[in-house]
Amino acid sequence: MDKKEHLSRKTFIRNTALGIAGIGAAPLLTGFQQVESTANKSKPMKLLKNVRLETGFEYDGDEVVATKTELFCIEIADGKITSIRKNDPKADAFDAKGMLMLPAFKDMHIHLDKTFYGGPWKIVKRRSGGIKGMIALEEEILPEMLKTSTYRAEKLIELLQSKGSSFARSHVNIEPTSKLQSLKNLQIALENKKAGFEAELVAFPQHGLYYTDSVPFMKEAAQTDIDFIGGLDPYSIDGSIEKPIDFTVQLALDHNKGIDIHLHESGQSGVDTIEYLIKKVLENPTLKGKTYLSHCFALSAIDAAKQEELAAKLAEAQVGIISTIPFGGRVMPIPTLYKHGVHVATGIDSVIDHWGIYGTGSVLDKASLMAQLYGFGNEFMLSRSLRLATDNVLPLDDQGKQQWPKQNDKANFVLVNSSCSAEAVARIPEIEHLIHAGNVVY
Protein backbone atom coordinates (compact mmCIF):
# COMPACT_ATOMS: atom_id res chain seq x y z
CA MET A 1 0.00 0.00 0.00
CA ASP A 2 1.32 3.43 -0.90
CA LYS A 3 2.09 5.73 2.04
CA LYS A 4 -0.56 8.19 0.82
CA GLU A 5 -3.21 5.50 1.17
CA HIS A 6 -2.59 5.05 4.89
CA LEU A 7 -5.27 6.54 7.09
CA SER A 8 -3.97 9.71 8.73
CA ARG A 9 -4.18 9.83 12.50
CA LYS A 10 -6.72 12.66 12.36
CA THR A 11 -8.87 10.73 9.86
CA PHE A 12 -8.52 7.60 11.93
CA ILE A 13 -9.83 9.44 15.00
CA ARG A 14 -12.63 11.13 13.08
CA ASN A 15 -13.82 7.81 11.70
CA THR A 16 -14.07 6.14 15.09
CA ALA A 17 -17.20 6.07 17.16
CA LEU A 18 -15.35 7.93 19.92
CA GLY A 19 -14.41 11.19 18.24
CA ILE A 20 -12.56 13.96 19.96
CA ALA A 21 -15.65 14.92 21.95
CA GLY A 22 -16.36 11.36 23.06
CA ILE A 23 -14.88 9.28 25.86
CA GLY A 24 -11.41 10.54 25.00
CA ALA A 25 -12.10 13.63 27.09
CA ALA A 26 -11.03 13.47 30.74
CA PRO A 27 -13.63 11.35 32.55
CA LEU A 28 -14.87 12.28 36.01
CA LEU A 29 -13.43 9.54 38.18
CA THR A 30 -13.36 9.30 41.93
CA GLY A 31 -9.81 9.38 43.23
CA PHE A 32 -8.30 11.17 40.22
CA GLN A 33 -6.38 14.40 40.61
CA GLN A 34 -7.39 16.66 37.76
CA VAL A 35 -4.32 18.31 36.20
CA GLU A 36 -4.55 21.03 33.59
CA SER A 37 -3.24 19.88 30.23
CA THR A 38 0.23 21.12 29.40
CA ALA A 39 -0.91 21.53 25.80
CA ASN A 40 -3.29 24.27 26.97
CA LYS A 41 -0.41 26.14 28.62
CA SER A 42 2.08 26.04 25.74
CA LYS A 43 3.32 29.36 24.43
CA PRO A 44 5.88 30.28 21.79
CA MET A 45 9.40 31.29 22.74
CA LYS A 46 11.23 33.62 20.35
CA LEU A 47 14.47 34.68 22.01
CA LEU A 48 16.47 33.39 24.98
CA LYS A 49 19.49 34.97 26.64
CA ASN A 50 22.04 33.67 29.14
CA VAL A 51 21.71 30.14 27.73
CA ARG A 52 24.57 27.84 28.69
CA LEU A 53 25.90 25.67 25.85
CA GLU A 54 28.77 23.22 25.83
CA THR A 55 31.64 24.36 23.59
CA GLY A 56 34.43 21.81 24.10
CA PHE A 57 36.44 19.62 26.45
CA GLU A 58 39.28 20.53 28.79
CA TYR A 59 42.15 18.03 28.87
CA ASP A 60 44.88 16.95 31.25
CA GLY A 61 47.09 15.11 28.80
CA ASP A 62 44.77 12.78 26.95
CA GLU A 63 42.12 12.73 29.68
CA VAL A 64 38.98 14.85 29.53
CA VAL A 65 38.77 16.52 32.93
CA ALA A 66 36.07 19.15 32.37
CA THR A 67 33.57 20.50 29.86
CA LYS A 68 33.82 24.06 28.57
CA THR A 69 30.65 26.15 28.35
CA GLU A 70 29.69 29.69 27.35
CA LEU A 71 26.52 31.79 27.47
CA PHE A 72 24.63 32.52 24.25
CA CYS A 73 21.47 34.05 22.84
CA ILE A 74 19.18 31.60 21.03
CA GLU A 75 16.61 32.81 18.51
CA ILE A 76 13.62 30.66 17.52
CA ALA A 77 11.10 30.96 14.69
CA ASP A 78 8.65 28.51 13.12
CA GLY A 79 9.63 25.78 15.53
CA LYS A 80 13.33 25.91 14.65
CA ILE A 81 16.49 27.46 16.00
CA THR A 82 17.25 30.29 13.61
CA SER A 83 20.39 31.72 15.20
CA ILE A 84 22.92 31.08 17.96
CA ARG A 85 24.81 34.24 18.71
CA LYS A 86 26.98 35.99 21.28
CA ASN A 87 25.17 36.51 24.53
CA ASP A 88 23.51 39.87 25.16
CA PRO A 89 22.55 40.10 28.85
CA LYS A 90 20.53 43.26 28.17
CA ALA A 91 18.40 41.76 25.38
CA ASP A 92 14.61 41.80 25.73
CA ALA A 93 14.37 38.03 25.95
CA PHE A 94 13.54 35.08 28.17
CA ASP A 95 16.33 34.91 30.75
CA ALA A 96 17.69 31.38 31.06
CA LYS A 97 19.86 32.57 33.98
CA GLY A 98 22.80 30.41 33.00
CA MET A 99 20.81 27.19 32.79
CA LEU A 100 22.24 24.44 30.59
CA MET A 101 20.46 23.73 27.33
CA LEU A 102 20.29 20.05 26.36
CA PRO A 103 18.43 18.20 23.58
CA ALA A 104 14.89 17.23 24.58
CA PHE A 105 14.69 13.65 25.72
CA LYS A 106 13.08 10.77 23.85
CA ASP A 107 11.41 7.78 25.44
CA MET A 108 11.82 5.02 22.89
CA HIS A 109 9.87 2.24 24.62
CA ILE A 110 6.67 2.87 26.55
CA HIS A 111 3.07 1.66 26.66
CA LEU A 112 1.01 4.85 26.79
CA ASP A 113 -2.18 2.97 26.03
CA LYS A 114 -2.42 0.86 29.20
CA THR A 115 -1.37 2.51 32.43
CA PHE A 116 -2.71 2.98 35.94
CA TYR A 117 -1.00 6.39 36.09
CA GLY A 118 -3.47 9.23 36.66
CA GLY A 119 -5.58 7.08 38.93
CA PRO A 120 -5.25 5.89 42.52
CA TRP A 121 -2.32 3.71 43.60
CA LYS A 122 -2.97 0.18 42.48
CA ILE A 123 -1.09 -3.08 42.30
CA VAL A 124 -2.40 -6.08 40.41
CA LYS A 125 -1.02 -9.41 41.56
CA ARG A 126 0.99 -11.00 38.80
CA ARG A 127 -0.34 -14.26 37.47
CA SER A 128 1.60 -17.50 37.43
CA GLY A 129 2.42 -19.03 34.07
CA GLY A 130 4.77 -16.32 32.82
CA ILE A 131 3.72 -14.14 29.92
CA LYS A 132 0.81 -16.43 29.01
CA GLY A 133 -0.52 -15.99 32.53
CA MET A 134 -0.25 -12.22 32.09
CA ILE A 135 -2.07 -12.46 28.76
CA ALA A 136 -4.96 -14.14 30.58
CA LEU A 137 -4.93 -11.33 33.15
CA GLU A 138 -4.98 -8.67 30.42
CA GLU A 139 -7.94 -10.30 28.76
CA GLU A 140 -9.82 -9.81 32.04
CA ILE A 141 -8.82 -6.25 32.90
CA LEU A 142 -8.46 -4.51 29.51
CA PRO A 143 -12.19 -3.83 28.97
CA GLU A 144 -12.26 -1.80 32.20
CA MET A 145 -8.90 -0.11 31.48
CA LEU A 146 -10.12 1.02 28.07
CA LYS A 147 -12.79 3.17 29.73
CA THR A 148 -10.11 5.54 31.07
CA SER A 149 -7.16 4.86 28.77
CA THR A 150 -7.30 8.20 26.92
CA TYR A 151 -7.33 10.22 30.12
CA ARG A 152 -4.55 8.18 31.70
CA ALA A 153 -2.42 8.37 28.57
CA GLU A 154 -2.67 12.16 28.73
CA LYS A 155 -1.60 12.16 32.38
CA LEU A 156 1.35 9.91 31.54
CA ILE A 157 2.35 12.21 28.67
CA GLU A 158 2.32 15.13 31.10
CA LEU A 159 4.62 13.19 33.44
CA LEU A 160 7.03 12.50 30.56
CA GLN A 161 7.02 16.19 29.68
CA SER A 162 7.84 17.12 33.27
CA LYS A 163 10.84 14.78 33.02
CA GLY A 164 12.07 16.38 29.79
CA SER A 165 10.63 14.07 27.12
CA SER A 166 8.62 15.51 24.24
CA PHE A 167 8.75 12.37 22.10
CA ALA A 168 7.93 8.71 22.66
CA ARG A 169 7.72 5.47 20.76
CA SER A 170 4.66 3.82 22.21
CA HIS A 171 3.62 0.23 21.75
CA VAL A 172 -0.15 -0.11 21.59
CA ASN A 173 -2.13 -3.30 22.11
CA ILE A 174 -3.64 -4.89 19.01
CA GLU A 175 -5.39 -8.14 19.97
CA PRO A 176 -8.85 -9.76 20.01
CA THR A 177 -9.87 -8.30 23.39
CA SER A 178 -9.44 -4.60 22.60
CA LYS A 179 -9.17 -5.01 18.84
CA LEU A 180 -8.19 -1.48 17.64
CA GLN A 181 -9.91 0.36 20.49
CA SER A 182 -6.71 0.87 22.47
CA LEU A 183 -5.14 2.48 19.40
CA LYS A 184 -8.17 4.71 18.84
CA ASN A 185 -8.16 5.90 22.44
CA LEU A 186 -4.44 6.68 22.35
CA GLN A 187 -4.78 8.56 19.08
CA ILE A 188 -7.22 10.90 20.78
CA ALA A 189 -4.78 11.54 23.63
CA LEU A 190 -2.00 12.28 21.15
CA GLU A 191 -4.22 14.65 19.20
CA ASN A 192 -5.04 16.49 22.42
CA LYS A 193 -1.33 16.76 23.27
CA LYS A 194 0.11 17.44 19.83
CA ALA A 195 1.20 21.02 20.64
CA GLY A 196 3.86 19.74 23.00
CA PHE A 197 4.42 16.06 22.28
CA GLU A 198 5.08 13.72 19.38
CA ALA A 199 4.93 9.96 19.14
CA GLU A 200 5.52 7.09 16.80
CA LEU A 201 3.35 4.04 17.33
CA VAL A 202 4.01 0.31 17.26
CA ALA A 203 1.12 -2.07 16.55
CA PHE A 204 1.83 -4.58 19.30
CA PRO A 205 0.24 -8.08 19.33
CA GLN A 206 0.58 -8.36 23.12
CA HIS A 207 -1.41 -11.60 23.20
CA GLY A 208 0.53 -13.31 20.43
CA LEU A 209 -0.07 -13.34 16.70
CA TYR A 210 -1.49 -16.85 16.56
CA TYR A 211 -1.95 -17.69 20.25
CA THR A 212 -5.08 -15.47 20.29
CA ASP A 213 -5.51 -14.93 16.52
CA SER A 214 -4.41 -11.32 16.38
CA VAL A 215 -3.46 -11.54 12.70
CA PRO A 216 -6.61 -9.92 11.23
CA PHE A 217 -6.39 -7.03 13.69
CA MET A 218 -2.70 -6.52 12.95
CA LYS A 219 -3.50 -6.37 9.24
CA GLU A 220 -6.16 -3.75 9.94
CA ALA A 221 -3.82 -1.72 12.14
CA ALA A 222 -1.13 -1.79 9.44
CA GLN A 223 -3.46 0.16 7.16
CA THR A 224 -3.55 3.07 9.60
CA ASP A 225 -0.86 5.68 10.13
CA ILE A 226 1.13 3.66 12.66
CA ASP A 227 4.90 3.53 12.26
CA PHE A 228 6.05 0.05 13.30
CA ILE A 229 4.86 -3.53 13.27
CA GLY A 230 5.50 -5.14 16.64
CA GLY A 231 5.88 -8.67 17.89
CA LEU A 232 6.22 -10.73 21.04
CA ASP A 233 8.45 -13.72 21.91
CA PRO A 234 7.59 -15.76 18.79
CA TYR A 235 8.81 -19.12 20.05
CA SER A 236 7.40 -19.13 23.58
CA ILE A 237 4.06 -17.52 22.66
CA ASP A 238 3.34 -18.77 19.14
CA GLY A 239 5.45 -21.93 19.15
CA SER A 240 7.59 -20.95 16.17
CA ILE A 241 10.28 -18.44 15.32
CA GLU A 242 9.94 -18.44 11.57
CA LYS A 243 6.17 -18.14 11.10
CA PRO A 244 5.58 -15.04 13.32
CA ILE A 245 8.77 -13.30 12.15
CA ASP A 246 7.95 -13.98 8.49
CA PHE A 247 4.47 -12.51 8.99
CA THR A 248 5.83 -9.45 10.78
CA VAL A 249 8.48 -8.79 8.16
CA GLN A 250 6.04 -9.18 5.26
CA LEU A 251 3.45 -6.93 6.90
CA ALA A 252 6.10 -4.26 7.45
CA LEU A 253 7.26 -4.53 3.84
CA ASP A 254 3.73 -4.42 2.45
CA HIS A 255 2.88 -1.23 4.32
CA ASN A 256 6.26 0.52 4.46
CA LYS A 257 6.59 0.23 8.24
CA GLY A 258 9.45 -0.39 10.61
CA ILE A 259 9.69 -3.33 13.00
CA ASP A 260 10.02 -3.34 16.80
CA ILE A 261 9.73 -6.74 18.49
CA HIS A 262 9.55 -7.47 22.22
CA LEU A 263 12.00 -10.29 22.89
CA HIS A 264 12.14 -11.44 26.50
CA GLU A 265 13.35 -14.99 25.81
CA SER A 266 16.83 -15.42 27.29
CA GLY A 267 17.59 -18.99 26.20
CA GLN A 268 18.63 -20.47 22.88
CA SER A 269 15.29 -19.52 21.34
CA GLY A 270 16.10 -15.89 22.07
CA VAL A 271 19.47 -16.13 20.31
CA ASP A 272 17.86 -17.98 17.40
CA THR A 273 15.22 -15.25 17.08
CA ILE A 274 17.89 -12.53 16.97
CA GLU A 275 19.79 -14.36 14.24
CA TYR A 276 16.66 -15.15 12.22
CA LEU A 277 15.51 -11.52 12.30
CA ILE A 278 18.97 -10.37 11.21
CA LYS A 279 18.78 -12.84 8.32
CA LYS A 280 15.40 -11.48 7.21
CA VAL A 281 16.60 -7.87 7.37
CA LEU A 282 19.67 -8.68 5.29
CA GLU A 283 17.36 -10.33 2.75
CA ASN A 284 15.22 -7.17 2.73
CA PRO A 285 17.65 -4.22 2.96
CA THR A 286 14.86 -1.63 3.05
CA LEU A 287 14.37 -2.73 6.66
CA LYS A 288 17.90 -1.69 7.64
CA GLY A 289 17.79 1.14 10.15
CA LYS A 290 14.06 0.54 10.65
CA THR A 291 14.20 -2.67 12.70
CA TYR A 292 14.56 -2.98 16.47
CA LEU A 293 14.55 -5.58 19.20
CA SER A 294 13.15 -4.37 22.50
CA HIS A 295 14.53 -5.82 25.75
CA CYS A 296 16.47 -8.58 23.95
CA PHE A 297 17.44 -10.25 27.23
CA ALA A 298 19.14 -13.10 25.37
CA LEU A 299 22.13 -10.81 24.88
CA SER A 300 22.65 -10.73 28.65
CA ALA A 301 22.61 -14.52 29.00
CA ILE A 302 25.41 -15.49 26.58
CA ASP A 303 29.17 -15.44 26.91
CA ALA A 304 31.31 -12.48 25.89
CA ALA A 305 32.44 -14.05 22.61
CA LYS A 306 28.85 -14.64 21.48
CA GLN A 307 27.93 -11.11 22.54
CA GLU A 308 30.67 -9.75 20.31
CA GLU A 309 29.51 -11.93 17.41
CA LEU A 310 25.87 -10.89 17.68
CA ALA A 311 26.76 -7.22 18.18
CA ALA A 312 28.73 -7.29 14.92
CA LYS A 313 25.80 -8.95 13.12
CA LEU A 314 23.29 -6.46 14.54
CA ALA A 315 25.49 -3.59 13.36
CA GLU A 316 25.81 -5.07 9.87
CA ALA A 317 22.02 -5.38 9.55
CA GLN A 318 21.47 -2.01 11.27
CA VAL A 319 19.12 -3.64 13.77
CA GLY A 320 18.83 -1.51 16.90
CA ILE A 321 18.37 -2.52 20.52
CA ILE A 322 15.87 -0.74 22.76
CA SER A 323 16.84 -1.60 26.32
CA THR A 324 15.16 -0.62 29.57
CA ILE A 325 18.60 -1.11 31.21
CA PRO A 326 17.78 -4.01 33.51
CA PHE A 327 20.09 -4.75 36.40
CA GLY A 328 20.59 -7.51 38.94
CA GLY A 329 20.61 -10.84 37.13
CA ARG A 330 20.31 -9.28 33.67
CA VAL A 331 23.02 -6.79 32.79
CA MET A 332 22.92 -6.04 29.08
CA PRO A 333 26.19 -5.74 27.11
CA ILE A 334 25.57 -2.08 26.24
CA PRO A 335 29.30 -1.17 25.95
CA THR A 336 29.79 -4.05 23.49
CA LEU A 337 26.83 -2.88 21.40
CA TYR A 338 28.17 0.67 21.35
CA LYS A 339 31.65 -0.56 20.40
CA HIS A 340 30.25 -2.23 17.28
CA GLY A 341 28.08 0.76 16.34
CA VAL A 342 24.69 -0.74 17.21
CA HIS A 343 21.93 1.83 17.67
CA VAL A 344 21.00 1.63 21.37
CA ALA A 345 18.06 3.51 22.87
CA THR A 346 15.98 3.28 26.01
CA GLY A 347 12.52 3.83 27.44
CA ILE A 348 10.81 3.59 30.79
CA ASP A 349 8.42 0.89 29.54
CA SER A 350 5.83 1.69 32.21
CA VAL A 351 5.38 3.92 35.25
CA ILE A 352 2.70 1.87 36.96
CA ASP A 353 0.60 -0.85 35.40
CA HIS A 354 -0.08 -4.55 35.89
CA TRP A 355 3.44 -5.37 34.67
CA GLY A 356 5.47 -3.10 36.95
CA ILE A 357 5.31 -0.22 39.43
CA TYR A 358 8.79 1.35 39.59
CA GLY A 359 8.87 3.79 36.66
CA THR A 360 9.76 7.44 37.28
CA GLY A 361 8.99 8.76 33.80
CA SER A 362 12.60 9.87 33.30
CA VAL A 363 14.89 8.48 30.62
CA LEU A 364 17.66 10.59 32.15
CA ASP A 365 17.32 8.22 35.11
CA LYS A 366 18.03 5.38 32.68
CA ALA A 367 21.14 7.12 31.33
CA SER A 368 22.40 7.62 34.88
CA LEU A 369 21.69 3.99 35.73
CA MET A 370 23.61 2.85 32.66
CA ALA A 371 26.59 4.99 33.63
CA GLN A 372 26.58 3.49 37.11
CA LEU A 373 26.22 -0.11 35.89
CA TYR A 374 29.16 0.10 33.54
CA GLY A 375 31.44 2.31 35.63
CA PHE A 376 31.23 5.37 33.39
CA GLY A 377 32.48 7.60 36.18
CA ASN A 378 34.70 10.07 34.31
CA GLU A 379 33.76 13.31 32.58
CA PHE A 380 34.01 11.94 29.06
CA MET A 381 31.96 8.77 29.56
CA LEU A 382 29.31 10.56 31.62
CA SER A 383 28.90 13.10 28.83
CA ARG A 384 28.60 10.28 26.29
CA SER A 385 25.92 8.59 28.41
CA LEU A 386 23.51 11.46 27.76
CA ARG A 387 22.86 9.99 24.30
CA LEU A 388 20.76 7.26 25.87
CA ALA A 389 18.23 9.88 26.99
CA THR A 390 18.26 11.85 23.72
CA ASP A 391 18.32 8.94 21.24
CA ASN A 392 21.91 9.65 20.21
CA VAL A 393 21.92 13.45 20.05
CA LEU A 394 24.89 14.97 21.93
CA PRO A 395 26.02 18.60 22.26
CA LEU A 396 29.68 17.63 21.66
CA ASP A 397 31.14 14.90 19.46
CA ASP A 398 33.79 12.52 20.78
CA GLN A 399 36.54 15.00 19.88
CA GLY A 400 34.81 17.81 21.79
CA LYS A 401 33.55 19.66 18.73
CA GLN A 402 30.22 21.37 19.19
CA GLN A 403 27.57 19.64 17.04
CA TRP A 404 24.29 20.63 18.73
CA PRO A 405 22.49 22.95 18.55
CA LYS A 406 22.91 24.20 15.01
CA GLN A 407 20.93 26.66 12.95
CA ASN A 408 17.74 25.08 11.57
CA ASP A 409 17.70 22.35 14.21
CA LYS A 410 14.25 21.70 15.67
CA ALA A 411 13.69 23.86 18.75
CA ASN A 412 13.23 20.84 21.02
CA PHE A 413 15.27 21.22 24.19
CA VAL A 414 15.31 21.32 27.98
CA LEU A 415 16.81 23.80 30.41
CA VAL A 416 18.37 22.45 33.61
CA ASN A 417 20.49 23.77 36.46
CA SER A 418 23.62 21.80 35.59
CA SER A 419 27.07 22.91 34.52
CA CYS A 420 27.42 20.28 31.76
CA SER A 421 26.05 17.01 30.38
CA ALA A 422 28.27 14.94 32.67
CA GLU A 423 26.82 16.58 35.76
CA ALA A 424 23.27 16.22 34.42
CA VAL A 425 23.74 12.46 33.97
CA ALA A 426 25.37 12.04 37.37
CA ARG A 427 22.97 14.25 39.36
CA ILE A 428 19.67 13.99 37.40
CA PRO A 429 18.50 17.59 37.90
CA GLU A 430 14.90 18.71 37.85
CA ILE A 431 13.67 19.84 34.45
CA GLU A 432 13.13 23.59 34.69
CA HIS A 433 11.69 24.03 31.20
CA LEU A 434 10.82 21.82 28.23
CA ILE A 435 10.54 23.53 24.84
CA HIS A 436 9.00 21.61 21.95
CA ALA A 437 8.80 23.06 18.43
CA GLY A 438 9.61 26.43 19.96
CA ASN A 439 6.75 26.25 22.48
CA VAL A 440 7.20 26.20 26.23
CA VAL A 441 5.23 23.13 27.29
CA TYR A 442 6.67 22.74 30.79
UniProtKB/TrEMBL annotation:
> Could you list the residue ranges that cross the membrane?
12-32
State the InterPro entries in the record. Answer: Metal-dep_hydrolase_composite, Metal_Hydrolase, Metallo-hydrolase_Enzymes, TAT_signal
Keyword annotations from UniProtKB, A to Z: Membrane, Transmembrane, Transmembrane helix
Instruction: Check the record and name the SUPFAM superfamilies matching this protein.
Output: Composite domain of metallo-dependent hydrolases, Metallo-dependent hydrolases
- What PROSITE patterns does UniProt report for this protein, alphabetically? TAT
Q: Does the keyword Mitochondrion apply?
A: no
Q: Which Gene3D superfamilies match?
A: Metal-dependent hydrolases, Urease, subunit C, domain 1
Name used for this protein in its record: Deaminase
Q: Which organism is it from?
A: Sphingobacterium hotanense
Source species taxonomy: Bacteria, Pseudomonadati, Bacteroidota, Sphingobacteriia, Sphingobacteriales
